[in-house]
Amino acid sequence: MLLAGDEFGNTQYGNNNAYCQDNVKTANCKSKKRANTASLLRAVNLLINKQKTFD
């Protein structure tokens, strides 16, 4: 299951409710590059395109 932002490597570092915390772990740091972001984004795009063929 993917949630909004997961395709870009978004993480809450195991915290299921990050709204209650205001610290470095829950900050949205876009400067960090994650190794698998490009491959996950390609996979999500592939799945979206496959779904569009059935609609």
Number of strands: 0
What gross morphology would you assign?
elongated
Could you state the order of secondary-structure elements as H and E? H
Average per-residue pLDDT, rounded, comes to 73
The gyration radius over C-alpha positions equals: 14 Å
Distance between the termini: 20 Å
Which stretches are low in confidence, meaning pLDDT under 50 for 5 or more residues running?
none
Q: Which structural class fits the helix and strand makeup?
A: mainly alpha
Name the beta content range.
under 5%
Domain module tally? 1
Helicity range: 25-40%
User: Major beta sheet, specifics?
Assistant: none
Number of helical runs? 1
Structural description of this entry:
The chain has 55 residues and is mostly helical. Helix content is 33%, strand content 0%.
What does this entry show, briefly?
This protein is mainly alpha-helical and 55 residues long. The chain contains one helix and no strands.
Write the layout of secondary structure elements.
Blueprint: H1 37-54
InterPro entries: GH (IPR017853)
Characteristics:
55 residues, mainly alpha, 33% helix, GH
